[in-house]
Amino acid sequence: MSKFLVEAFVTMFVIMDPPGIIPLFLAYTAGRTPEERRRIAWQAALTAFCLVVVFAMFGKAILTYLHVEVPAMQIAGGVLLLLVALELLRGTSDPRASPVRSKVNVALVPLGTPLLAGPGTIVATIVFAQQADGKPNAMLMLLGAAAVVHVLLWLSMHFAVTIMRVIKENGVELLTRIAGLLLAALAVQLMLNAIRSLTRTG
């Protein structure tokens, strides 16, 4: 169980990348008052967490409706996570990170989704929920891991200005690269587990 908790936490942490969200958060909230930034920070984290909970609770029903098996989802999830990892490793800039203000609440879109609770996060949540199927303790661990990651996301955004002053842009860049490397390894492991599962049942 402890291994499941660690895997869920690490996977969500590297996908959602609390250090990496700092420059994006600052770009989207450029010109906002400190009070507005604090409000946007908790709204974005809460939006992303609610989406994760929904897919954790109803992910099985979605897969059943689509007639998708767990190994297939694991392989698809591994591929998507690998693509996210490559973007982190290459430092691919997100064109949506433009400091343009609009009437849309940036806490919901694009911060809450798709930047925080994006495709990679959703796929990982469904896969872990499938692994926790029939194990109440495992599901609680999954939700607990998600809650901790979202608290870290909120803290990163809440103290974004202070953090940038301390670690500078180079520090954020370094942490993002490390997160990308870890995520790539987890993505490959996810696909290997799916292949082993198919081999045993084949």
Features:
0% strand; globular; 202 residues; 83% helix; mainly alpha; transmembrane helix; cell membrane
Polypeptide structure, described:
The protein is mainly alpha-helical and 202 residues long. Helix content is 83%, strand content 0%. It has helices at 2-16, 18-28, 34-66, 70-90, 107-116, 119-131, 136-158, 160-201. It starts with a helix and ends with a helix. The relative contact order is 0.23. Pfam families: MarC (PF01914). InterPro entries: Multi_antbiot-R_MarC.
Distance between the termini: 27 Å
- The ordered string of helix (H) and strand (E) elements is HHHHHHHH
SSE-based structural type: mainly alpha
Number of domains: 1
Multimeric status of the protein: single chain
Sheet of most strands: none
Give the overall shape: globular
Draw up the topology in text:
Blueprint: H1 2-16, H2 18-28, H3 34-66, H4 70-90, H5 107-116, H6 119-131, H7 136-158, H8 160-201
Helix pairs in contact: 1-6, 1-7, 1-8, 2-7, 2-8, 3-5, 3-6, 3-7, 4-6, 4-8
